[in-house]
Structures are given as C-alpha cells and as structure tokens.
C-alpha cells in the first residue's frame, strides 16, 4: 500500500475527455468526500474534461452501473469507481470487495477502457478518514490522477500512428 499520493501531472491536460464517476452512497460521509476530491482534482488537471457522476446504493452495485455507463451511447474515456467497505465481524465485506474487484477488472479488459478502482476495503473509520477525507492518502485525488494518466496513454495508443516510437516500453532483462 502506498503511503502518499502520486505526484500531480506536470502539465495540465487539454483533453476534452469524458470521465464518469460511479460512486456508492453507503458510508456517505466518506464516499461524498471521495467524489468531491476526485472532481476537484479532475477540474485542476483536466479542466476541459466532462465529468459525470452516477450514484448507486452500495459498493456491490458499482460494477453493474459501470457496465451501463460503458454500454451507453456516449462511452467515457475512463470510469472511476468509488466506494467504501468497512470490514466487519463477518466475511461479507471481503466477499463484496472481491466481487467488485474482479468485476471491475474484467469490465476494463472487455471494454478496453480504463476503470479506476478505488472501492476501498478498510478496517475501521480511522482508515476510512485517512483515505477518503485526509490529504496524504486521499484516494479520490489518486483516482483522478490515475484516470488522467490513462486517458493520456490511451489517446496515444489509439490515435497516434507513431505511438510505438513514442511509448517508453520496458522489457525484462531476462527475456
């Protein structure tokens, strides 16, 4: 687990990309903060982007809403999934988190669209506060930065005929 936010991009993006945020309402104090932090960060680093927000009841409903967004007429260049699961005394939270994680990854690969996964599984409200409201580990801001990075990368991969020359590829030394 990282202990600090990745750095903000050096250059402000001129992209007019469409970014969709799908966020749960459950644990509202924390999920509202995730959404606001993600929107604020996107406004700062991608000021020309269109940001749509879809709210769902809980974390379990996030994947199906993401699928609906990706199947829509106006497909976004990236989807940010935001939610919070506080681990309880049963395995329910772990099962929901595993299901959501698997579904989001499969969806990203199927649609060849970045799905930024910040549906957090935490032990308690102290961890939730640090990751959703605090400034050092803020996962809403981190999600926005990851979305911007992936939109820029996919723009190069899909639209630039010389992208193979420009991409910084690294291969294992033992290949």
UniProtKB/TrEMBL annotation:
<dbReference type="Pfam" id="PF00885">
    <property type="entry name" value="DMRL_synthase"/>
</dbReference>
<feature type="binding site">
    <location>
        <begin position="89"/>
        <end position="90"/>
    </location>
    <ligand>
        <name>(2S)-2-hydroxy-3-oxobutyl phosphate</name>
    </ligand>
</feature>
<dbReference type="GO" id="GO:0009349">
    <property type="term" value="C:riboflavin synthase complex"/>
</dbReference>
<keyword id="KW-0808">Transferase</keyword>
<feature type="binding site">
    <location>
        <position position="131"/>
    </location>
    <ligand>
        <name>(2S)-2-hydroxy-3-oxobutyl phosphate</name>
    </ligand>
</feature>
<comment type="function">
    <text>Catalyzes the formation of 6,7-dimethyl-8-ribityllumazine by condensation of 5-amino-6-(D-ribitylamino)uracil with 3,4-dihydroxy-2-butanone 4-phosphate. This is the penultimate step in the biosynthesis of riboflavin.</text>
</comment>
<dbReference type="GO" id="GO:0000906">
    <property type="term" value="F:6,7-dimethyl-8-ribityllumazine synthase activity"/>
</dbReference>
<protein>
    <recommendedName>
        <fullName>6,7-dimethyl-8-ribityllumazine synthase</fullName>
        <ecNumber>2.5.1.78</ecNumber>
    </recommendedName>
</protein>
<dbReference type="InterPro" id="IPR002180">
    <property type="entry name" value="LS/RS"/>
</dbReference>
<feature type="binding site">
    <location>
        <position position="26"/>
    </location>
    <ligand>
        <name>5-amino-6-(D-ribitylamino)uracil</name>
    </ligand>
</feature>
<feature type="binding site">
    <location>
        <begin position="84"/>
        <end position="86"/>
    </location>
    <ligand>
        <name>5-amino-6-(D-ribitylamino)uracil</name>
    </ligand>
</feature>
<comment type="similarity">
    <text>Belongs to the DMRL synthase family.</text>
</comment>
<keyword id="KW-0686">Riboflavin biosynthesis</keyword>
<dbReference type="GO" id="GO:0009231">
    <property type="term" value="P:riboflavin biosynthetic process"/>
</dbReference>
<comment type="pathway">
    <text>Cofactor biosynthesis; riboflavin biosynthesis; riboflavin from 2-hydroxy-3-oxobutyl phosphate and 5-amino-6-(D-ribitylamino)uracil: step 1/2.</text>
</comment>
<feature type="active site" description="Proton donor">
    <location>
        <position position="92"/>
    </location>
</feature>
<feature type="binding site">
    <location>
        <begin position="59"/>
        <end position="61"/>
    </location>
    <ligand>
        <name>5-amino-6-(D-ribitylamino)uracil</name>
    </ligand>
</feature>
<dbReference type="GO" id="GO:0005829">
    <property type="term" value="C:cytosol"/>
</dbReference>
<feature type="binding site">
    <location>
        <position position="117"/>
    </location>
    <ligand>
        <name>5-amino-6-(D-ribitylamino)uracil</name>
    </ligand>
</feature>
<dbReference type="InterPro" id="IPR034964">
    <property type="entry name" value="LS"/>
</dbReference>
<dbReference type="InterPro" id="IPR036467">
    <property type="entry name" value="LS/RS_sf"/>
</dbReference>
């Amino acid at each position: 687990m990282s202990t600090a936010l990745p750095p903000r991009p050096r250059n402000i993006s001129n992209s007019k990309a469409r970014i969709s945020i799908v966020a749960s309402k459950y644990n509202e104090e924390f999920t509202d903060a995730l959404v606001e932090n993600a929107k604020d960060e996107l406004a700062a680093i991608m000021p020309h982007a269109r940001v749509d927000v879809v709210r769902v009841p809980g974390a379990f409903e996030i994947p199906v809403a993401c699928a609906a967004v990706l199947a829509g007429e106006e497909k976004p260049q990236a989807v940010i999934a935001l939610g919070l699961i506080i681990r309880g005394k049963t395995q329910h939270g772990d099962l929901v988190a595993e299901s959501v994680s698997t579904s989001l990854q499969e969806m990203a690969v199927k649609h060849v669209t970045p799905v930024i996964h910040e549906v957090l599984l935490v032990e308690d409200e102290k961890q939730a506060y640090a990751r959703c409201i605090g400034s050092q580990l803020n996962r809403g801001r981190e999600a926005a930065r990851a979305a911007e990075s992936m939109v820029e990368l996919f723009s190069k991969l899909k639209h630039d005929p010389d992208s193979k020359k420009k991409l910084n590829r690294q291969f294992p030394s033992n290949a």
